[in-house]
Amino acid sequence: MIYSVLFYTAIIIATGLLFGKIAKYLRLPNVTGYLVGGLLIGPSILNIVKEEALPGLELISVVALGFIAFTIGNELKIKYFKQVGVKPFIIAFFESFIAVVMVLLGLIIYFLIIGKLTNENIRFSLVLSAIAAATAPAATLMVIRQYKAKGKLTETLLSVVAIDDSVAVLLFGIFVAVANSMDPALSHGSVFMQVMHPILEILISLGIGVGIGVILILGCIWFTGRGNRISLTVAAIFLTVYLAYNWGGSSILAAMVLGFLFTNFSSKQEKVNELIYFFTPPIYIIFFVLSGVELKLSVLITVGVLGLIYVVMRVFGKISGAFIGSKITKSEKKISKYLGFALIPQAGVAIGLSLIASSVLNPELGSQIRAIVLSATIIYELSGPLITKIVLKKAGEISVLA
To answer: Is the CATH number of domain 60-394 1.20.1530.20?
Structure first.
């Protein structure tokens, strides 16, 4: 059974290469091709990669996400934040918070209209809406890298998606605490402790990222060979992901902090990052094709009106929230106009939060939230990268030939 993982991995890489090429011919982002290819070979359609094989391939996705987060951290330069100040933080807060509020309002109004605004459905609305804050950084980064996008919108987008997950985790913790406080039978402690939990998760992640980051910076001074430095960097990312997983942190946030620290405080970062750039393509291909494999078309049938409200209101909230945040911070017109459209993708973090949500609500409502989030993931992941490409092109930050 262990050796079958090698077979499936080979199939996944070959599929990614083929559909990435097809996507290029169709002038679509590579990541869209990877996702479609994965969907095609997965259990939903051809069933070449069978569902029982997915647990054995899960580790690859976790590792790939660590590399993606590290790369995003590498893009966050201190000199950039000195220039723009708190702008990305304000924008990230508004685009996350307003997305949550819009979904919550949509759900509450729906339950009011059908006459089912019960305590249980209010708790359901609070928990589901909290997940709307999360944005998937991986697809956004891949589009930016593929088309070599550069400019103010690209810089703001990278910084906002890096901050977004921390804001999402905080908002989710607060909203779940409120939902739990409305049902003592399901309460897991005081509201204060429930709100503190996501803050603790962020602090643990920061601590891990900083600790491993210091080791990586010093290690790259001691080790002089390119092979040694790339090996040390890979080991640092692996260890960061492992510690975050086992110590109750966020592997994405911890790896971002690692990348941020390394790019800003290591004199060797440029050489190492060039090597990482050439090392990671097969990892990214596996990650996105596997993401496509895990998409299940059957869940689309089960979501109904609630799923539609979630999908539409979240997009409206992201766009309007980014617009408001950009206006408050007096950002460039193209940022206020286009940024929200590039924040549509949603995947790993949202799915993880939906699993936590299942433990907060009763089994029926918990499974309904998971179905809604999985369905939204299919829609957002297939449409999001293309929309990101279009808005970056309209903003004049990728080549007109792309």
So the answer is: yes
Q: Tell me where in the chain the CATH 1.20.1530.20 domain(s) lie.
A: 60-394
What number of other Cβ atoms are within 10 A of residue 165's Cβ? Answer: 26
Cα(15)–Cα(285) distance, rounded to whole angstroms? 9
For 52-111, write each residue's pLDDT tens digit: 888 778 787 788 878 877 887 887 777 767 776 788 888 888 988 899 999 999 999 998
SS3 27: coil
Q: Where are the beta strands (DSSP E) in 84-185?
A: none
Q: What distances in angstroms separate CA 32 from CA 57, 104, 136, 176, 269, one per listed residue?
A: 20, 30, 14, 33, 30
174 contacts: CB under 8 Å, gap ≥ 6: 130, 195, 198
DSSP at 329: T
State the Cα–Cα distance between residues 139 and 346, nearest whole angstrom: 9
Largest alpha-carbon pair distance within the chain? 69
Listed in sequence order, the residues at least 6 apart from 311 whose beta carbon sits closer than 8 Å to its beta carbon are 375, 376, 379, 380
Check: CB of residue 359 under 8 Å from CB of residue 114.
no
**Residue 12 gets which letter from DSSP?**
H
Write the CB contacts of 84 (distance below 8 Å, at least 6 apart in sequence): 155, 156, 159
- Which residue from 339, 346, 266 is spatially nearest to 73, judged by alpha carbons? 266
SS3 (DSSP) at 132: coil
Q: 50 φ, ψ to 5°?
A: -80, 155
pLDDT per position as a tens digit, 194-217:
556 667 877 888 899 999 999 999
DSSP state of 297: G
Tokens of 131: 């997940």
What long-range pairs does 21-28 form, CB within 8 A, spacing at least 24?
27/402, 28/385, 28/386, 28/389
Could you tell me the pTM of the whole model? 0.72
Contacts of 290 (CB under 8 A, 6+ apart): 12, 38, 54, 57, 60, 61
> Among the residues of 185-299, which ranges form H helices?
191-222, 226-246, 251-265, 269-279, 281-294
